[in-house]
Amino acid sequence: MARVALIKLFTGLNLAPAQLSGELLRAGHKSKIIYFKNYEDHLVGEAGNYEVAEFSGRLYSIDGRELIWNCYKPFSDTEFELLINELRDFAPDVIGFSLYSGIIKESAQVTRKLREHFDVPIIWGGAGPTLEPELCIPHADIVCINEGEEVIVDLANRIDAGLPWDDIEGTWVKAADGTIIKHKVRPNIPLNAIAIPDWKRGNYVHINADQVKRGRFPQNLGREYPIMTQRGCPFSCSFCIESRYQEMFGKKDSLRRRSVDVVLEELRWAKQFLDIETILFYDDVFTVNPQWLREFLPRYKEEIGLPFWCYTYPTTHNVELLKSLKAAGCISITMGVQSGSERILRDYYNRPTKMTRVIEAGREIVEAGITGFFDLITSNEFDREEDLRATFEFLLEFPKELKCVAFGEMISFPTYSFSVMSEQNQIAKKDPNRIAVAVADQQPSQEVYDYYHRLYRLTRTKLPVDTIREIGRDIRYRRDPKLIDPFLNPEKIPRFTGLSA
Fold first, then answer.
1. DSSP string over 55-82
2. Residues 229 and 183 in one domain
3. CB 140 within 8 A of CB 158
4. Most buried among 226, 256, 343, 387, by the most CB within 10 A?
5. Is the overall model pTM greater than 0.85, yes or no?
């Protein structure tokens, strides 16, 4: 039996540690999951007092605040001591990190600290190592590329048997002489073969603010159970990691879904052993396969019977499907909109969806009686003011009943298609001869964004549409956007499930 410690820097949605732990336990090994540090959101003016993870950005909250997300308080000596003590008590044979591109620096910092105390292999996996293994392998002994369930069990088996682990498929390995050995990528895993994730409370440790808490879920868990019934996405949005995975590993068979029986088996376990009240389906597009849903939804209602939330896409549902979701327990749903400008959607986001269909899809959510949310990316370097105005006009037509938690700026994660366009645009901006025209030269100022974000919030109020449109035309509000503030709702940020925080 090998002992594997799984470290997740910063609480937040990440199903990987639970999944990997489930695989290890099923294979007869022992695991321990440690969440190290919390992320925090802070007002723009206060964010300078905190560390800020790479690829963080500005959020315009529905309650009117302008925030920087993914801030954190610096790692303290006490927190490192608590982490080291937890690992010493566990005595791991392997230490694993699950990370994305934005925390490579922080993961390297923690890894260096652990190497002072533990002489065991350290493996990094997740989106960051998959997208940028060349940046990760200098810090780790082994880097997992793509899915890690089979890799982590293979590694644990070899260490348990005293066998070499430098030839595991799906990894890069750093040899003793510093040479990097690059093995071929494993094929995607049949999802029916994966284990039930390990959400047992006794297997979790949470370290933050110089305190250690055992046997408690991190912030994103508790009464709401997260699950994915599928991996992959039928769409290829330029700003999404799924499009990058399609480019790296092929689109054919990239979208896989677990069988209805297997999904219900996991949910029955969660309902029996965890104190949960709602289910969160984090599939990129839960509504993508009506045939699967026709089998799943009646059985879910009968065998699980808990309220749930999920994602949809404007072209993957109709009112009949939504009513089926509602009948099975769907209490809320989030639809990706991202922009009200068809130019931005088409030319930069690779989402060639007509706004008329998006509006219709929103009305179908309302007709089905489901609480609706929508995502909106309201700031990117390719914006022109006409795009901001188009989003405002779209929101005037989009049902007021649908809510947006926050308006976000576009973040360019490395190697994504959008990021490639951004890099080309930044090169054009710096061209001293101005041979290439930089699109970003036309991007609106921060003051213009502040004005439009107020208008966007105004469209979610009870003011008549004609009144809102008049405010949007009145030059007085353009000159002094704060004049709009008295019309805005001082509402709290809503939750998908309606449960109190």
1. T--EEEETTS-EEEEEEEPPPPHHHHHH
2. no
3. no
4. 387
5. yes
